[in-house]
Write a structure and sequence with these properties.
alpha+beta; twelve-stranded antiparallel sheet; elongated
Length: 222
């Protein structure tokens, strides 16, 4: 999506802003790179943890991104977290800084290239049971493995959600391997299934409004 040179440049911006030098010694681990689509919108994400306090990173990044008028960066700050975003040409860039312990910060750089078109989002793995509403689909592409994560809401109890998905998945060719009984804790049910060379894992959680279902579909590596 983005060129390797562009990716390295974005990483260097965060490191230089954090440490005051071009040395990567402030990083506690290697940069993690991921290409995803959220509801069909393509995003490039790079993340790392730095041994530098969040205010210092934010100040350094703002000094380098400072620009007059509409190009000025936008800052959103909250408890333990700062998000700095800007629009530069066709690129929308956002850096999320989250406290990760004493003197440490987790840095997540997200880039949306507006020249890359939005694609239709992936379809659910089975027909939606009655009353189920799809909230979001995230498609992950990295290291030759593609997976999809879906989230759904249902204004009803977890037992109803589990029953509906069991029936719908059976009609769509999924073979159920494991389902746990509905319990009284936060994660009220788990479900595993396979179809061809794919596996499905789902968590059913109770919410104040009903049930939240998070479902991941990925190649079956067995």
């Amino acid at each position: 999506m983005l060129s390797r040179r562009r990716i390295h440049a974005l990483q260097s911006v965060a490191l230089v802003a954090a440490s005051g030098s071009s040395s990567p010694s402030t990083a506690t681990g290697a940069w993690r790179a991921e290409e995803i689509r959220v509801d069909g919108v393509p995003l490039s994400i790079r993340s790392v943890e730095l041994e530098v306090a969040r205010p210092r990173i934010a100040a350094g990044l703002l000094a380098r991104w400072e620009a007059p008028g509409p190009a000025a960066p936008i800052v959103t700050a909250g408890e333990g977290r700062t998000v700095i975003g800007r629009q530069r040409g066709a690129l929308h860039e956002a850096v999320s800084l989250t406290d990760a312990g004493a003197g440490r910060t987790r840095v997540v750089v997200t880039v949306r290239d507006l020249r890359i078109p939005v694609a239709p989002p992936a379809r659910p793995p089975a027909g939606l049971p009655g009353g189920m509403r799809m909230l979001r689909v995230v498609e992950h592409h990295g290291r030759g493995v593609a997976s999809r994560t879906f989230s759904f809401d249902l204004r009803g109890p977890p037992a109803r959600a589990l029953q509906g998905w069991r029936r719908s998945m059976g009609l769509s060719g999924w073979k159920l391997r494991v389902t746990t009984p509905v319990a009284g804790d936060r994660h009220v049910a788990l479900l595993w299934a396979v179809r061809g060379n794919e596996r499905l894992e789902a968590v059913f959680s109770r919410t104040p409004e009903g049930t939240r279902v998070v479902m991941q579909v990925a190649p079956d590596g067995r």
